User: Fold these one by one.
Assistant:
Number 1:
Amino acid sequence: METPKNYTEQILESDSSPKENEEKKESPKSKLSEATKERVKIEREIDRALKSYEKALSGNFNLKTPENNEDVKALNLFKQVQILRAKLVGAKMEKLEQLVLDFNALNGRVAEFLSEENNPIEKKRIDVAFNRTNLQPEPQDDLGLTEGTKARDPEKLSDLDYLTLEDESAKNPNVVDELTDTKVDRSLEFKQAEEVQKLQDLETQKQNQVTEKLAIINSDNEPENAPRLLRQLWELSHNKMGKIASIEPHTDNASLVFEYKNGTKKIVPPSAIDKFAGRSFDRFEKKYLSKVEDFEEKVTELDFEEDLGGRADTSEITPEESKLETEPKKDDYSKLDEKSGTDVLKGKGVFKV
Amino acid sequence: MNSLSQIKLIKLRDYLKTYRHFDTLTEQEKEDYLKKILEMDEAKQEEVYTWLLYEEEMEKARMLTKLKEQVDLLGSKVKLLVNKKNEGEQALKDKLEEIELQKNLT
């Protein structure tokens, strides 16, 4: 609709009806009706469009329980659209002007969001999702393109295809990022991510083994058919002076934490437990638990599984040692002090877990 | 003479104050205009008031058209967003199928 001549002004100046109006013989009311129809039509078009955007966003993204960054951004956009649509209803001129500015700003934000879609972080997210499938990506050619990629329109490379290009950039630091047109070196970033993933997997694997073994050790029934070390640990754990509180898994180390009844804890490497076979607990405690620091220095290979197959100390128990295999008494700790000459509660090697 | 309702009178005053066409007028000139309108007969006053509404509607329509342009722009972006997501999912599906197929073949 064309910009109208200012009829009001004409009337004010001439004291008569606008010439144009007279020529067309249109009443102001019919013109007003026409203008109102036009205005309502545009309003409805906008409202319909905004509703369709809301529908598209709610239908394609998980807005109720956002699962990822895309969902969160879509939810924010959905809310913004809803707010602006509500503002549109019965908006006066000043509000309409503000709405144009608001929509302009929203468009800017959405444009930023869309540009983030091609962000390396976003691609990396897909990479992680890919790795979780435990499937290996198909071979790539010199350009980093797979057969599947080539089968599609090369002009329409998806994020996933950019991902393979990015993998190439990890191998070749001089690969040019097509999105930013700059040379990038992401090899270190990828190596670090791989290392972290490996460590996490190893840690999880260790933790699972440890949990399984700790369950055997803490079981009320003696694990007769279990490996020797586990049986020894069970014996140690069911000693009345204390118990195996936990197993501390590390990448290249796995230690036990022996907890005395009074709450004092000491770290015991499994290799020391191996030597516990056939010995009294008192002797074991005196020889090993009170010298934790020495153990830590001596122990180089503490892989739990390997320790299970370790050799036991088969040296004979002396008559003196056998005397020590008695029921621990209330003042056992003080007795131990006298025998070892060290304070096991306050001395060195007391570790807090 | 004041045949226009109070509401219409207020609207007229408001119109004279805010309508950009009268920006160049001084407050006194605006008051003179208002006085002139009030001196008109009732039919004329109604006519002026109707034209005022018409111009207001036209102004709104122009602003809404501008708004519609922005909304359409937003629509194209929403569409792009949805397409990107669907394409990404489809690409991932295709890729997984391809890998699965290769695994089965080997």
Number 2:
Amino acid sequence: MKNFLFSAWLAATIVTPALADEIWPDAEWAIPAEGSSSLDPAALEALEAYAFPEVPKPGQQTDGLVIIKDGELVYERYADGYTADQRHYAWSISKGVTNAVFGAAQYQGLLNIDEPVSDYNNTLIKGDRNTTTFRDLLAMSSGVDFNEAYEYGPFLSSVIAMLYTLGHDEMGEFAADQPRIANPGTVWRYKSGDSLILMRALRDVVGEERYDDLPWELLFEPLGIESAVWERDGEGIFVGSSYLHLTPRDLARIGLLFARDGVWKDRRILPEGWAWESTRLTPAFINSLEEAPDWLRRRARYGLHWWSNAGDEAAGIPPAYPDLSEDMLIGSGHWGQKLFILPSADIVIVRTADDRGRGFDTAEFLELALAVVAPGGAG
Amino acid sequence: MWRWLRRIVLGLFGLILMALLVVVAWNWRYARAFPDILSSFTAKEYCTCRYVIGRGDEACREYTEYFIPIGELRFDDEAKTVEVDALFRTNSARYLSERYGCRLE
């Protein structure tokens, strides 16, 4: 019932009438006309005290903060050493952009994410695992054994071995050749290996020549993203898990694409409903969450290469942030990179960072940031 | 008295060594690549920091700092290469192009 009401409200208030006068960025982001800014000054002060404190917080460093509301850049600030024109590391927010590349490829009919990867002219995934679909990989449920620890476990970490040592020449093959712990589609484990298997498989879908510029053809050029650098492995495979670098303003364009259900101006880029579908919990995730530790049960929700705020009533899983809408997409990267997308409120928030300790609190940050742009609540 | 103490210390040391060997053998899948991690990581991420993000030497050294210190780091702004010595290994990274950024060699 709640879902029905929500959809009805969405249809009535946003989708239909807004299309004609929606604001989009051109070469630059639109900025509210002088004097028309509706930011709450007290709320802004509180947000800045959190993100850019005069006395640095130990282990916490915000490098940049960009807020988009209704297609306009309403707030932007950078720490010393960074500017609006400077790229920043997206780290694992790259995974959400990998999702977008697959969404665009699906919309153009280049592939079907529900088909096995092995249907597309490759022997990447061998043996009886070769039924693994693109969706299994997007849902982090390939069943491959892959240890995602970073600097705390260099002896054990698969991701470090993949990026920097044993796997760096052929990351997709390295990931696909790891031992199996479960059948495809049954167990959720967050792992960069699945992103690399996806990106490696994508080359066989489109061929080597087209692959080389594919994210630009499908995504960056239509969106006017000019700063993107996507680093690759020794074979030229995009490191879809980690190595996208672009300006916070350009990352916000990816956010706006998802906020507006995969449409950019008058052109559809992602299939209709792809953004919403990317937030939904998968059976593998629901199974795995049951055995997860408490902190993970409380805050972690995962769809297709995006963190989210999805609940699942049948499984007894509430949204992670009950005050916020369930269509929120969250990109989260190493050392504190964050991309928050709230489609029903038409808000995108980019936070670039260099957090070397814990302490950044998503719930607290979102409350402060949303108080600035959506004082009535972004629910 | 001292002889006993020496035996105990040696015994403990032996046990620790054996435990360590067991851990390394158990994790041999990645442990064999361990000595390369520090120089590879530093070379790749320093290269990206300097030639993709566009930050200076001090900021990039700080960005790639790990709790184990590295040996020497050499960069060549003309060729856009970075070479790092650490843990008795040397690894290097190269900036390839605008869309490719940096890659380990």
Number 3:
Amino acid sequence: MQKQAIFQSKLLPYALVAPQLAIVLIFFYWPALQAMIQSFLLQDAFGLSTSFVWFENYIELFKEPAYFEAILRTFFFSFAIAVSSLSFALLLAVMADKPLRGSMLYRTLLIWPYAVAPPVVGVLWIFMLHPSLGVLSRYLRALGIDWNPLLDGDQAAALIILAAAWKQISYNFLFFLAGLQSIPRSVIEAAAIDGARPMRRFWTVIFPLLSPTIFFLLVVNIVYAFFDTFGIIDTMTRGGPGKSTETLVYKVYTDGLLGGNLGSSAAQSVILMIMVIVLTGIQFRFVERKVTY
Amino acid sequence: MANVTLRSVRKTYPGGFEAIKGVDVDVGDGQFCVLVGPSGCGKSTLLRMVAGLETVTGGEIDIGGRVVNGVEPADRDIAMVFQNYALYPHMSVYNNMAYGLRNRGMAEAEIKTRVEEAARVLELSAMLERKPRQLSGGQRQRVAMGRAIVRQPKVFLFDEPLSNLDAKLRIAMRVEIRKLQRRLNTTSIYVTHDQLEAMTLADILVVMNGGQVEQIGNPLDIYEKPATTFVASFIGAPPMNLVSTRPEEIRLQLAGSNAADAGILGIRPEDFVITDETPDGGIALALTVEAIERVGAETFVYGSREQEDQRVAATPGELPPGEVIVRIPGTQAPAIGARIRVAAVRAKLHLFSGDGRKRIEA
Amino acid sequence: MVEEEGFRRYIAHIILWIGIAIVAFPVYLAFVASTQDNAVIANGQMSLLPGGHFFQTYYQTIFIGTSGSTREPVGNMMLNSLVMALLIALGKIAVSIISAYAIVYFRFPFRMALFWLIFITLMLPVEVRIYPTYKIVADLHMLDSYAGLSLPLIASATATLLFRQFFMTVPDELLEASRIDGAGPFRFFWDTLLPLSRTNMAALFVILFILGWNQYLWPLLITTRDDMQTIQIGIRKMITTTDALTEWPIVMATAVLAMLPPVFVVVAMQKLFVRGLVETEK
């Protein structure tokens, strides 16, 4: 944990750590603490007085069916986004891993979407699938689908999932490619000589050896779906129609900013914090146990 | 069981690099063939082409009478032992060995019999449930061999399997591999860069350099009658001494034989004796002792000649050796700086053309 | 391998190109839209090929802005985004590298405690602590300022972790040799450690710059003045209005412009980018 060769200064290290520490304390711990405190408070309608209400905000939250719906919805979105994005990215990575000509080119052409910001993703997709003027909407209608995500909750959800999955493809692709390339070629060759055709090789050798990467990406994708989708939702559906695309993080935003219920919003933040800590905790523990061959 | 025949096999990579320039080899059923040569000579590439891991640009590869150029590795009925073992990290030793049999749809009961038998032979029975990362290098190597044996393939392929082991283990395993192969009588092709391994293992030795075959034959034949200066200095350690035949001193001694056409004279260190007499038709050289190496059973004497500019390299473009090496049995050796005279009989002289590519019989 | 010849190869190429098409299509469409006439688009009749309004639309976008709710020229917004992204990237690198330096190369009380304190910040993205952070920034009078935009985002620990990991792999002999040569902590840092860290810093810079440029929720909350908006907010505001008023070509041109710098950075510094991604996620 510590290097053997070190300097002897006693004050200097504090000075070096100070800037980051200051920022972290002021802009991370203090607000986190405030969020926790706020979650125990209730402001009256005019914001004139605040009272300490213990866990009332939390209890109210759990009594609210909309909250549970939001939880389910968020998890559903997360898995849908993760699974669709991961599968397609895996397919692309497996194809790109072959010794093809121009594989460098393919990699370049597939990783740049990482740079696209969530709100831009939202704008692009709402433009493509806009009920009246979207280019793809034309084709959907030609197929007989009554496409209007601004009115149909399920279609709106599908839209969000599609857009969010699209954005994540390049990130997943990159990590899958790195994972595939870390599998020694000779092991795959040995499997081929052992009588395994490409498909069998994939499922019996490559996939198991890729599982740490898969698990890691699963957690990352879920966390991404929890938070980074905010920009996408805000530009495309704003949580509607009728809350059908309101995820937990979006609910924190609407209840707080638009609804003025800071106490409840803070409680939701705290619950989200706990969820993320648990998720990252699971990831760290599993990664610790991940065996390097 | 099957023979393996390579007919005019060539391989050129997409960039234009010609890795294999036309190779013909015939390995009979049950024979142990060793491909030996320096790094980059193409021996591994050739082996991988037989395995189906590299494509063939020209010529034919024949296993058991069937041309296999376009056949997938899975269908060639071969088994391969890799240099780094290539064991499946996520499977137990048992499953590593069972994998190939399962792929062929064999019944679990029979798989069990075969795997346990192979484990017994290779002394792996106690480790069947362990994972590769829990094994030592030598144990992993045996698992790799076990994986090959249970398949009972037509051909065994070995890609420098002993290179990653320490010296002692290497010698022990070398013997084991040979014994095993004799017992199973499976045709085997073995790649190594170690000429000692090559000499001790091979029924047929194929010496390669630069994508081409320099010589094929019985190891002892190759040792006694190397076809080119490359083979002459590659096989046998310390390497054969090669000197140019131009200097007066040498030419005079060689007069009256085909030596006139020869450009290069080769004499093995073990074929020199320190003596003042010159045998009939033989060669004698005057040397100044520069260094002595005693290894217990024998001593190597490094001596320099007056005309150092007449040294010759084994392959054009390489640096010639610095000194003439002489091997003496035992530990008695001349002092450093002493002037000695060494001689070799006619029968032990090797003559080659000036470019080193042709052997000339004296 | 033998089986990789022939039609399997073609299939691989085909699938990859389909992937590239899927990935590129929305962006391509945006570009096409930005060169077309708004009326045509609103009618749903937009063709799939670029139109002729390229210069006109982009000029208007960059220098004039829409007549809708954002009257801000996109050029300005891009400047704001640029400043914010640079501040975040550079600020984070600077602050983290000296922190990591202290933690690795010095021994002092509370060293590990401070390290964990910083480490925990990895876990929570800004969205979770959004309101209290807003309140604090407001109290510090940092709303509508570049400082307010960037400081809270510098607070997380990814860079510190990366530098710490990297410093641990630097051989001790280097430090010992430096000390024998009479160098103190500053000299060592400046002359030896910093040059060694160059590639890591560059890789981090790429990732952080993109992160900063793509920030959305936070700038949304703390900027109230039009001229302090970043381009991500600009885009969002442009499509808030009802469809009849949305000037799609300008919106799409803005989207294209919003994508250009980060995409350019990713492509131009691809190797560093990939390295940065893989390293920070470990």
Number 4:
Amino acid sequence: MAKHHVNTTINGDQTEFLCDTEQTLLDCLRDELGLTGSKEGCSSGDCGACSVTVDGRLVCSCLVLGIEADGAEIGTIEGIAEDDDLHPLQKHFLKEAALQCGICTPGFIVAAKSLLEHNPDPTETEMRFWLAGNLCRCTGYDKIIKAVTSAAAEMRGE
Amino acid sequence: MTQTQFTAPTTVRSAVRCLAEGGKNPKVLAGGTDLLVQLRAGRVKPTTIVDLKKIPELKVIKTEKGGFRIGAAVAGAELNAHKAVKKAWPGLVEGLDLIGSTQIQGRASLGGNLCNGSPAADSVPALIAAAAACKIAGPKGVRHAKVESIVTGPGKTSLKKGEFIVSFFLPKRAKRSGDAYLRLIPRTEMDIAVVGAGVSLTVDAKGVCTDARVSLGAVAPKPLLVKAGAKALIGTTVDDDALEALAAAASAACNPIDDKRGTIEYRTKVAGVLAKRAALIALDRAKGK
Amino acid sequence: MGKEEKQFDELSPNVQANGYRVVGTRPVRPDGIEKVTGKANFGADCELPGMLTGVVVRSPHAHAKILSIDTTRAMKLKGVKAVVTSADFPEIGPKQRGAGEAPVSFRDMSRNVMARDKALYDGHTVAAVAATTPAIAEKAASLIEVKYKVLPYVLDAREAMKSKAPVLHKDVFTKGVDPRPKKASNVTQRFEFGMGDIDAGFAEADVIVDHDFTAQCVHQGYIEPHACVANTTQDGMATVWCSTQGQFMVRNYCATVCGMDISKVRVLPAEIGGGFGGKTVVYLEPLAIVLSQKAGKPVKVVMNREDVFRATGPTSGGHAYCRIGAKKDGTLVAGELTMEYEAGAFAGSPVHLGCMTGFAPYVIPNSKSVGFDVVVNRPKAAAYRAPGAPVAAFAVESALDLLAKKLNMDPIALREKNAATEGTKAAYGPKFQKIGYVETLEAAKNHPHYSAPLGPNQGRGVASGFWFNIGGESSAAVHVNEDGTVEVVTANPDIGGSRASMGIMAAEVLGIDVSRVKPLITDTASSAYSALTGGSRVTFAVGQMVCVACDKVIVQLRERAAKIWDVEVDDVEWVAGSAVNRKSGKGETLSLAEIANVAGKTGGPISGQSSSDVQGAGPGFGTHICDVEVDPETGRSTVIRYTAIQDVGTAIHPSYVEGQLQGGAAQGIGWALNEEYIYDANGCLENGGFLDYRMPVASDLPMIDTVVVEVPNPNHRFGVRGVGEVPIVPPLAAVANAVSAAADVRMADLPISPPRLLAAIDGK
């Protein structure tokens, strides 16, 4: 069987690529499209470093087939910043030092953005459980939670 | 090297045909949260992957005969957003909601969770406790089966070649009913259940239990329907004595293994503890608290 | 959130007293934008034209003789461009060279990178293949036929020490034992540290406690798997792009393992997605180089998560027996520690470091710490944040907890009574200079956490910890650009925010705004040698070199100003980022930028470089307080409150210092509660993934409050002590002491997983 020709939208841009059935969306983003912002930490959906949105829903791109992107809208870390301006989450992650090595950061920012769309005023517990699928080994999560809290407040206009 | 085929049919009938024509090892795809992990690890080598998510019947949630019909490929996040199902069956929705992370929730389905055949599947004890039934499609047509008849052993189901689950039916909820699902995991999220307990019960106006179903996960080669557990509750006010009897019945029903997640001794003891706790939550819900 | 919120921008008393302008503030890190937008390039993000994919073939047996390897079928597969086995790597004789935090045996290292006659653990590399696509490479790997003779295996240190245990290496005769044993064994070395006479000491004791402890080997758990790309050219040059803690280390190790001159290997460090000591060695790089040489194309090799667990060095698990004797009033009179650590397949556990650090926070006139380095059929141990110290501290700090209870003494008071201070002679040798251990105990005692009430099934644990921190060979270069901005060039990968610290220190010394300083991390061909990032040394030692390089730049700036003003250089002072003319009486100034603008006319480019073997690292001490709630019916533990207190010397960038305390504490909590390696009946790893290797997730932890104590290190321009490693040392005992208090049963075996705790509670 020839490769699949996938027509999709990524961060608002019409995009096409070719892939084998067994290539995941993560493989396609990184290897076919050069969008290396989504990271491969485990390939089993346990670390969240590959987090993206598919039709607005937060998923692990390592557990979505590339072909499933056909006709769908994909959101990745590369699309979070608003042109020249960083998204409040990105700004607060920087200000509050919510990253050390930075490998988990794209996944956290995509996941946190999804959280705040779902619930603009989450409690600390709600944040921690929503983000439980994003592993961080460097920070102990403290400053990440603080950064998400600050960003959420800014986005609520406080 | 031959490549795995992929197809995304839009009707149940064409899906049945795709599976029949799908070579030696066709696999259905709903959320992919089990299939893709197995694919990546080389544990499964499908000849064809049949994506079921474009079939409307597998994605719908609707009322039916006073109960609910839920498509087998509905994602956990979608079910969690459905207020009516959540109100009638909070334990079931909780169980599905506990699978993995928010990201997994964006994809994982009731159908996939059941058919993966893990005795530890989080959505299954509550489904069994709810007396849910499956609609199954296959080469010989459509049939219905109770959820507790599907998993026959670790990784094994009673589905015949070419069959797949189309939807689940949750029966009409009697007044003053409640359900709950609890699981024991070492962390707070992300782990496979070491023990899972689902309890559904109904009480009368005086608070006496008139109906109950108790189900346990991860304590036997398949998810269990614990009839003795139900017997311990029915006719009682779910007082301490009844709960002790329930715990004993739950522990007695266990036939677990020692594995990397828990020991026989541990699972047996904790099954009793969780059955009690789940029964109390179900009771509160039944009483409208 | 945290209990008493400091103002975010508040400066510490130490910083205020010294009048620092930039040190002690919290500017946004210079490499931050790339990291929050997904543009930073990590190890697997490198793409080169014509690049092949490399896949490693690994032993499925814990211990086996390799009888033969047949690569014919793999070589025939279309798309396969190269296959390597041990035949492609030179045989290395026994040669010892110091590197990183432990002496290195290149013979062992090369046998770890590629097995020769024996596979010594499940996952040990036996071959590798490069092909045009990942799918073809995977298929080719499956076609390589390896014939094994399976041997009995051993996984536990004490089991491996028994006379009937399977012996891994025929040429290991225990060092440090007199007379030298005649029979080969699995004990590679015996270490002993101490002072005084413990028999006399224990004879004097009013109270003695002793206990046996065990801890499992745990993985550093970096989220980024090992990854590299190697590109070789026909002139024998190899260029390697990799995720590493030390580009010079990679160069050195690859050159040796591959049999090349050091100058033929150039290593470009990628951004690194976590290391914690686990990336201070090589696994894939030599394979990628030789595959690339054979294929004539660049080769990318990336580990999958399961291979990371099966085949990369965790830290050592092991056993620790601790006995402590004290007077009625709590004065310690004798301490004994005997430990056996699992080194993995080759010698080199950090047991000697455990022996040196266990009692280090205390004045104990008589102590004896003995350690055994034992090989077992597990992956070769690699460094993990304060290697060796956490397990030793687990034993000592738990024993002190038992002692405090026996004496009916507050655990902090017991530690205060015996605390090491300036002038204390440590059991491992040196006399401490100025240290801040007592200050951490003070801060712990007075912290609201310590006096907060506890509810039912809740318990509180306290523990302290020590790490030496190191200096070492370091280099830095500072170049002034024509517009007055400054490049600070170092060659140490940034694993925790060190770029920000380099920038801050340079800005402070030069007197300019931190936004005008650009810190860069460069490759082995573009910098003088610098030892790897580890040992909590970068902010201290490389930072010191940055300061010295800036000093040299300032001399040049003053010389140029002197030339412009036609005065002597001694008449020019450097103040707040400008040259000031002290001769003319009018106080003219020239800013750095103004001098830089005309540098071409006053003598050429302005630049300073400094290299040294930096001495005078300041030891670090920490004290942690942990509250745990236990569910007595299920054995589940929840950490409900945690405070990490540490003397850091001076916090150059407080946010990143706090981050180190929080990150180390989180790793220690995981080690204490849930992390372990689980092997099946064949000695093969069962839980090689993040599902069943259970690291803490966000919902497992509370906020981790930090108290940054500053007792400046007199040997650094700004008083810096290493920070990164100390925080993982106290948590094992802090958590175990808390659980033991909550459940009223001593937990001496880690991890304290629910089945273990429930069994202990039920067994009471």
